[in-house]
């Protein structure tokens, strides 16, 4: 369950148990007008930063995002996302990703980048096994 304001940029490796499949460095977009590079990305990677991260906005938006692979083959990956607020569903839906074309519908830049990071982590693990 990564932070919904996190834009992951570089995998640091890790485990499938991490919400994005790896531990990622990245950029905080909690204040879209002033993105920043946090020195500690623990809350970014694990979500539920409301009240724990000084940058997290006090708004009505979600606290965390989670992903799961629904189907994968040699040409496409279908995943499902759930955004949560206070550990309850906030928004959810499928995302279809073509290995040659990218996402069939742009889910928004932050959600798309997090989904891309999740897919990259998944594909790395599949190639390594």
Description:
- The protein is α+β, with helices and mostly antiparallel strands and 129 residues long.
- The protein has one domain (6-128).
- The chain contains two helices and six strands.
- Strand 3 and strand 4 (76-85) form a beta hairpin.
- It is globular and about 40 Å long.
- It starts with 5 loop residues before the first strand and ends with a helix.
- The relative contact order is 0.21.
Number of E-type strands? 6
Strand-pairing-aware structural class: alpha+beta
Main β-sheet: number of strands, strand sense, barrel status?
A: 4 strands, antiparallel
Domains (count): 1
List low-pLDDT spans: none
The Rg value, from CA coordinates, equals 14 Å
Strand content: 25-35%
Helix tally equals 2
How far apart lie the N and C ends? 24 Å
* Overall pLDDT score: 94
Helix content: 10-25%
Strand order in the largest sheet = 3-4-5-6
Q: What is the helix/strand order?
A: EEHEEEEH
Backbone shape: globular
Short descriptors:
about 130 residues, alpha+beta, two-stranded antiparallel ribbon, 2 helices, 6 strands
Task: Please outline what is shown here.
The protein is an alpha+beta fold and 129 residues long. It has helices spanning 42-46, 109-128; strands at 6-11, 24-28, 64-72, 76-85, 88-98, 102-103. Strand 4 and strand 5 (88-98) form a beta hairpin.
